[in-house]
Amino acid sequence: MAEIVTAKAVKKTSILEEITKSGSYGSGSRPIIVVPTSDYPGNISLKNCISFLRDGKFVDQKNVKLTDEDKNATKQIFERRLSTGERVQFEVYDSVYGFTKKEWDRVICLFSCGEQF
């Protein structure tokens, strides 16, 4: 008699799931997105990243009104609902100076500008 062996589907855990669930990143850690510091026209920066990443709308940096506090910010935090219905908070930085290994491990996206390589 032949034995039937069936393979179980193994669901891979995404980096986003790994970061947001408790574990080596710390309970409830936020995924990190890095944007350029420069105000180069047409780029994403801290000034316009929330409208682009959370709302899906590109707003030119020249048209963004910032508070005095926002003008000196090096980090923004926003929340977005994923397709699964889960709400996730993201941190957006325009500088990686002083990032620790744990912070680098939480980076899920990096926008850059400059020469084509």
Care to describe what's here?
The chain has 117 residues and is an alpha/beta fold. The protein is built from 4 helices and 4 strands. It has helices at 15-20, 49-53, 68-71, 101-105; strands spanning 32-34, 75-81, 87-93, 107-110. Strands 2-3-1-4 form a 4-stranded mixed sheet. The radius of gyration is 19 Å and the shape is elongated. The termini are far apart.
Tally of separate helices: 4
Give the helix proportion (percent range).
10-25%
Question: What is the CATH level 1 assignment?
Answer: Alpha Beta
Largest sheet: 4 strands, mixed
The CATH architecture assignment turns out to be 3-Layer(aba) Sandwich
Structurally, the number of domains stands at 1
Secondary-structure-based class equals alpha/beta
Identify the strand order in the major beta sheet: 2-3-1-4
- If you average the pLDDT, what whole number results? 79
Distance between the termini: 60 Å
The succession of helices and strands, N to C, reads: HEHHEEHE
CATH 4th-level superfamily: RNA polymerase II accessory factor, Cdc73 C-terminal domain
CATH topological fold name: Rossmann fold
- Please tell me what the overall shape is: elongated
Report the C-alpha radius of gyration, rounded: 19 Å
Q: What are the low-pLDDT stretches, counting only 5+ consecutive residues below 50?
A: none
What is the total tally of β strands?
A: 4
The fraction of residues in strands falls at 15-25%
